[in-house]
Amino acid sequence: TVLVVDFGAQYAQLIARRVRECHVFSEIVPSTMPAAEMLARKPKAIILSGGPASVYAEDAPVVPDGLFDLGVPTFGICYGHQVMAQALGGTVENSEVAEYGGATVAVTAPGVLFRGMPVHQSVWMSHRDFVSQAPAGFTVTAMTDVTPVAGMEDPERGFYGVQFHPEVLHTEHGLELLRRFLYEGAGCRPNWTMVNIAEESIEAVRTQVGGKRAICGLSGGVDSAVAAALVQRAIGDQLTCVFVDHGLLRKGEAEQVEKDFVAATGVNLHVVDAQERFLAALDGVTDPEEKRKIIGREFIRVFEEAAREIVGEAAAEPVEFLVQGTLYPDVVESGGGTGAANIKSHHNVGGLPDDLQFKLVEPLRTLFKDEVRALGEQLGLPPEIVWRQPFPGPGLGIRIIGAVSKERLDILRDADAIAREELTRAGLDREIWQFPVVLLADVRSVGVQGDGRTYGHPVVLRPVTSEDAMTADWARLPYDVLQKISTRITNEVRDINRVTVDITSKPPGTIEWE
Ligand code: XMP
User: For ATP, which residues are the binding ones (predicted)?
Assistant: First the structure.
């Protein structure tokens, strides 16, 4: 493993992902972890991330004692570069001039990292402090106009540092530098591949679950689908999946789970048709928060009932495990596996009742979303499942502005299906993060169709691009695609006589309308 020591940068996750792109496993650890604990994880290399603090700030995060004595090759990035310089006897200074954004470094000595590369390279900088003098034993490998030590290394001792951000795509040769450090500087081998990940995870689940039984809630989303497929490979019929059809799904989604997913995995599926129940609970409700609460509450009840049934059926062999599709970012954000992670995992199930005590199986908890998709493909799941857009738990319930009814759901389902179909036909599925279609059910607008006046409803198209849903931009869909969607929706979907496009970024808008 490669440990990415997090100094509070938004970049730590990105660094970890890039390391994995070099086919080397990486984990993020807090900078407060003692060096001995780091060593216990047997790291092949350590990367010190950037961070917002100045090394001179009072509460600046410090390098764990003894980290530079572990004998593990270490690469400092930005703040990590500065703490390395400071700890090993170099000097770090405050500068009047900050260096933010694109810059050009000049390679002053090739060393291990820059060997054979162009002398001038574009890089991404984000700093104010800078290393003015490298520690004894180091060679300065790069500089910029304002940063005398933009790169330094001491290959003998296995220490490397750069002031810029190699993990950011704007840094021209960033990935290559990282690769050099990993392969040449630290002797890592590129063995983190999907085949290995799949095999190792399957083996780990087998060991954890043994001959016991497990259940898994399927949401129709990518994460639970991949988790279930993987556990199914590991323990076969000892797994039962529960799929709650709450009637707020998109067209063909329930069938996709019931047919395609089962066909691809051979999993035991327990489907609960709870459509009536959800419609009844949502009857007349217009407030978004109230909708969410009702849907969440009903979901837990239905899931709990199903779980009890399955547990009951299997009285001879109790169900001990609950499979969850928790991803690595959830684990990191809730404390990097330092105990706090469990709170989040329970939260993910929507708070299962205490009297249903399960041990958790979380086979994806070391993976990023793109890795989960690749793993899904490796496990033979169909692309329609693997490349699905994220879809909110409350489903179409929060894409109908106004009260939810069966009729309105059917209208929205038809419009949404057309939009998705045309997006796929235009080959844009992987560029668009999400494409909600929203029914303004309480708004009516006048139109003319045939020779008559219509008085129908508008729908809003909300295609967005995003990396992680925290921020998003409205997608500039080609006009001809928009036009096709508009024509088809107004022609084919009853009661819709107007199609609009939402051109708000997030912030200030959210992706969903409710
Ligand atoms: P917003 O609308 O807040 O959404 O920009 C960000 C992302 O989260 C999804 N979303 C939800 N997912 N339960 C979920 O599982 C929810 O209640 C929920 N609300 C929003 C949304 O689709 C987008 O991907």
Answer: 219-225
